[in-house]
UniProtKB/TrEMBL annotation:
GO molecular function: dynein heavy chain binding; dynein light chain binding
Protein name stated in the entry: Dynein axonemal intermediate chain 4
InterPro entries found in the cross-reference section: Dynein_IC, WD40/YVTN_repeat-like_dom_sf, WD40_repeat_dom_sf, WD40_rpt
GO cellular component terms, semicolon-separated: axonemal dynein complex; dynein axonemal particle
Presence of the UniProt keyword Repeat in the record: yes
Superkingdom of the organism of origin: Eukaryota
Biased composition (Basic and acidic residues): 269-286
Localization: Cytoplasm, Cytoskeleton, Flagellum axoneme; Dynein axonemal particle
Entry's Gene Ontology BP terms: cilium movement
Annotated source species: Hemiprocne comata
PROSITE patterns xrefs: WD_REPEATS_2, WD_REPEATS_REGION
Keywords: Cell projection, Cilium, Cytoplasm, Cytoskeleton, Flagellum, Repeat, WD repeat
Ranges occupied by WD repeats: 538-580, 581-615
Keyword set includes RNA-binding: no
Gene for this chain: Wdr78
Amino acid sequence: LQVFDDEGKDVTPRPLFHPDPSTAVPQQGKLWAAAASFEDAGSAFPSSFPLQQTAGGNAKQKRSCLLSSSNFSDVQMRQEEIEEELTEEDLDRRVDIYLTETETLWILEMAPVVVSTESEEAARVLERNRIYVDMCKTRPGNDHFVENMVQTINGAAKNKEVQCDRTIMEDKGTTVTSWDLYDAFNVSEGEHPSKAEGTRATAGMHEEKECQSEAILTSENFQRDLFFMERILMENIFQPKLAAYRQLPILTDPNVPSDTSGTAAAMENAKEEGHEKEKEAKEEQKEAFIHPSILADLNKTPEEMVPPRLEQLWSYQCDLTRGHSVSSMAWSKANPDLLAVGYGAFGFKEQKEGLACCWSLKNPMWPERVFRCEHGVTALDFSMANPNLLAVGMYNGFVAIYDVQSCKDTVLLDSSDSLNKHTGPVWQLRWVEQDRGTAGGGRKERLISISADGRVTEWFVQKRLDCTDLMKIKRTGSEKKELPSEKERRSETQISQQAAGMCFDFHPKDTNLYLAGTEEGHIHKCSCSGKEQFLETYRGHKGPVYKVAWHPFSTDMFLSCSADRSVILWHQESPTPLLTFTSTPAFVLDIMWSPKSALVFAAANESRVEIWDLSVSLFSPPISCSASPRGRFTSVLFATNTDCLLVGDSQGGVGVLELQNLPAPSNT
């Protein structure tokens, strides 16, 4: 046989095995010979009998064995003979080919522990399992169950006896009269030393119990539980006042209907009495401190005709703060219920240790945090970028930063090691945003302070506090014309002296501009870019300027208060005052614009706190509240989320006053 490819090349496979001619060749059966010849003859007709496609691997193996043995040479030798013997009938005859499997070779056999439910053995295995389960259930008393015991060697037992003295028990009794008890109680220690020892032993037991009690009281878990219990009690006690502060309805106890009805009736009676008193004292109230224009509209209902007033809800004060003067107040930027209050005296002879306390609405009777300072606190403010940081300025010129999240009162950073620290009292301190237009986490802050040494300083909060001066405030003369000789005498002293800085306030929109009030009564508009020259100087006060405040809505206007007993309204484009407000002959120590109304501001002088409404009157405050005879007001602060005003006094109290019956706020 020869096999040719499509190009005519001979690709007949060559046998690898050459049989020995001397070996006898077994004769093939007729069936295999015919099959082999038929396969060879049918190679020219691959589509007629696809033997290799229908046959399995074993058929191929048999064929390869058939052709690769000596029979292959025999087929070649008898090719012509087979071709001659086959006829057309043989070619058309059907040939049957049988395929059989070879013997399976087992390399690894592992008996399975499970049987498929579809197998033949499944029924038998299930029956065996059922028989075993039944046998286990009937195990006690079953004949098929046999229990065998194995004998083991036990250790020798030992008995150990201990001899001791016999315990002797006796019963004794005695009769005691009342005088025996009296004599035993009043006997001296010298007559009965054994009783004195017993008393000392009893005292020792008491001391141990006291130590245990002290350990319990100082434990962290007990302190935390007391903290939450105290807050719950305070909220229950101050619920009506806290509800009024937040402008929420007052809750009543549904379990006590009698008290509720009595309380409601009492409130109705109080309302009726209040209306009667208001009608009777209408003329007196007009003449006293309520401006007549508020009650001018006669078409209003009796409820609408109730005049505006200040009602005190509670006061932040405790034994720790009593006797300290409130110097400054600041709300937390992140938590509107957290208030920081600084306590320190303003006079040199009145100086003592200062305090910085953090008060919460959840406990108006005791501060959440108390930071003790060696010197009086004169200014403080919360950070907005890091709400847990509280900056504190002191009378000796130091600046300190505390962490209100920490329960410890240690200083986080201070300016004691700074070479450029202030040498005079820090009268005001504030965190100022560098770019108010930046939102989210990109917002940055800088800490600014002003001191009596005449410097406006920016502090860098790093591993330690260090600073640089934004402005050194120099003394400026008045605009009055002076003689040449007077100018010559004063020129030398004015060049070397600096004016003490009292207050400052940055522009609401342009943080590069700020106002600085001085002790000589002048207000300077300055820029952070220029350190040597004022942009503008506003002259109008005749005493130290205690506070300046930009208008939150009309950013071209600002207020100032002074020791000359006046409050002045300015326009930044005009060096002369627009309006001057004077009500009482007392120093005006603090002012603040209302965050809700463009025409309302509060002022605190030594004798009373005043609420000015420019839409009502330009000559007298519509609402005022007098201070106690023993104290004076020192600072004011509006609440950010409610109609309340906080007023600090010289006795260490911060009164929370509710503004009632105010007209609708105006922001125009």
